[in-house]
Design goal:
210 residues, alpha/beta, Rossmann fold, Arc Repressor Mutant, subunit A, 5-stranded parallel sheet, 5 strands, elongated
Length: 210
């Protein structure tokens, strides 16, 4: 017997069009049923235990409590629930925070509904589905060397150097002065014991510093 077939879903999403669209698609093109939907976690928190969903599809940017902070609260209210993030945010920091807080899956809002429906089945079976671009960021993060001698800012700058950015472009992107970038680059060269951009990139890649 397929235990995922009668899974119930709650959607917490502030965009009404997206909320109603996914509700319709899940109810009419999948074996699952959306039992309730809310515009924010703050509206959902008093009723969600009664909804008792198997899966929650959760946005991050909402009025009141954001999705990242809502995850541990939801897991406390419903310990067995599976949470799939559905958001426009795909920065490494936010993805890792969501997963660390207990999210089971992570998708961006341009994900086709068929993939989201597959993801529901996947989390119900113990999987951790993600959009390909999200999975790539998680893998890249795990592949970085935890023993890097570089500071977070130096790593950011080195990463931009490997992408071919010059000092002024780096300064503009990080909202710092060109002279500050110059000082950071000098420190990077000293720490990596190199004298050129090409050597810095080579050492960074071979030691998984970026």
């Amino acid at each position: 017997m397929d235990t995922t077939a009668d899974a119930t879903i709650v959607i917490i999403e502030d965009d009404q069009t997206i909320r109603e669209g996914y509700t319709y698609l899940i109810n009419y093109t999948s074996p699952y049923q959306v039992v309730n939907s809310y515009a924010s976690f703050d509206l959902a928190k008093h009723k969600i235990v009664q909804d008792n969903p198997d899966v929650i599809i959760l946005d991050i940017q909402m009025s009141g409590t954001n999705g990242i902070d809502a995850i541990p609260i939801l897991k406390k209210l419903l310990p067995q629930v599976h949470i799939i993030m559905l958001t426009v945010h795909e920065t490494e920091k936010i993805i890792l925070e969501a997963l660390a807080n207990g999210a089971a899956g992570y998708f961006t809002k341009n994900t086709p509904s068929s993939k989201l429906i597959e993801a529901i089945k996947d989390v119900m079976q113990g999987g951790g589905p993600m959009s390909p671009n999200v999975a790539k960021k998680v893998i890249t993060s795990l592949q970085k060397n935890p023993d890097s001698p570089l500071t977070k800012r130096e790593t950011q700058i080195l990463n931009l150097i490997t992408k071919g950015k010059d000092r002024s472009q780096i300064a503009a992107e990080l909202f710092i002065e060109t002279e500050t970038v110059k000082t950071h680059i000098k420190n990077i060269y000293l720490k990596l014991n190199v004298n050129s951009k090409a050597d810095a990139i080579k050492v960074a890649r071979s030691n998984r510093l970026v």
